Amino acid sequence: MTPLVLYLLCGVAIAGGIGMLLTKHPIRSAMSLLLTMTSLAGVYALLHAHLVAVLQVLIYCGAIVVLIVYILMLLDVRSDDAERFRHRDMVASLAVAAAGLLGAGFTFLGLRAEAALAIDEGFGTTNGIARLLLGQYVLAFEVAGALLLAGIVGVVYLTTREGRER
Amino acid sequence: MEIDLTPLIITAGVLFCLGMFGVIMRRNVLVVLMSIELMLNAVNLSFVSFSRFNGDPAGHLMVLMVFVVAAAEVAVAVAIIINMYKLRQTLTVDRLDELRG
Fold first, then answer.
1. Which residues of B touch A35 (CB under 8 A)?
2. This prediction's pTM
3. How far, CA to CA in Å, does B57 sit from each of A11, A55, A133, B85?
4. By the CB < 8 Å criterion, does B80 face chain A?
5. pLDDT digits over A50-74, tens only?
6. Does the distance separating the beta carbons of A111 and B9 come in below 8 Å?
7. Could you read off the pLDDT of B74-95 as tens digits, one per residue?
8. Complex ipTM, two decimals?
9. Most CB atoms closer than 10 Å: which of A50, A126, B31, B95?
């Protein structure tokens, strides 16, 4: 049962990605992206990555997509893509995408199908992740905090008129 | 029936190629931003899959770091897009050529 649901969610994620590319209006692209991210959260939950699944919903579906939709509404974006795609680049990018998929395919030929290794009790739970994050990987945790602070300062500087006129 | 690694990695590869295709092809700068998010999600999926199949939770930490970078990136990108829109009243990437020499 679980593998079927997992592969179904993978299919929904790919369908959402294709829909994001093909729809003309940006708000529909955002909704397709939301579909992709929500189904990926389901995939994470089925892969025992419980904390990552919750954070995927909170951060991607809850913050990033909402921010993009908010900007779409604030700027009152019409579907001003007169031609949906830049046709002159179509052949080149199709070739790039096909080459990427081909290279990935050759990599998969070298993969041996192996069963998943056994996982211990705390795998993917908040407790297990927090012990790693605040223990072995505490430097990465602090650097991430510094990066977010720099991002906040940069955004405030960019969006306030006083910052630029000074 | 056991979960197999290969379909998950194929899904990640297809999602990454779709995102790359969107970055190259679409003209709306917000859709380009969404395509970049799609590529980040594809990478996250491969991290979580390999983490599950190796029994090593360190991959989850990498995904958390990608979350942080993605959130900061979107915030800065949206601020830049708002400023560009104030300047040029357009979101089409071809017309945002302020830095062209």
1. none
2. 0.87
3. 25, 15, 10, 42
4. yes
5. 999 999 999 999 899 999 999 988 8
6. yes
7. 999 999 998 888 888 888 887 7
8. 0.91
9. B31
